[in-house]
Specification:
3-stranded parallel β-sheet, alpha/beta, about 35% helix, 5 strands, Hypothetical Protein Ychn, Chain: A
């Protein structure tokens, strides 16, 4: 059974951490799953966010899973997050997409929804 984790909550939300925990559990059990970051959840892909040393870093936790981390490009750009290609295209002076995350269109979300057996939104 394939699962799509649609993550829409901000990184400081308990729901965002529950999504990570489920992804870790699914990976540990070798279950088929995908993730998609949308709406306010895209801020997890901001490579310029600072997290105090005494707190867990959600961005790093997702990166450690070593899975594909697609992020809605429109939602990201609207929140000041861009990769090098989009920075150049939109005349933005720098890029800040965290390593391991990838900006994609909503067509990818549609494909993921169509191909999954179960969709969970956080």
């Amino acid at each position: 059974m394939s699962t799509l984790l649609l993550i829409t909550s901000t990184p400081n939300s308990v729901h965002a951490w529950h999504a990570l925990g489920l992804a870790q559990a699914l990976q540990a059990k070798n279950q088929d799953f995908r993730v998609f970051f949308y709406q306010d959840a895209v801020t997890v892909a901001n490579g310029l966010q600072w997290v105090p040393d005494d707190q867990r870093n959600l961005t790093h936790e997702w990166q450690q899973l070593a899975i594909r981390l697609p992020v809605c490009v429109s939602a990201a750009l609207a929140r000041g997050i861009t990769d090098q290609e989009n920075a150049k295209r939109h005349q933005i002076s720098t890029h800040n997409l965290a390593e391991g995350f990838e900006l994609v269109g909503l067509g990818e979300l549609a494909d993921a929804v169509e191909s999954c057996d179960r969709l969970l939104q956080f």
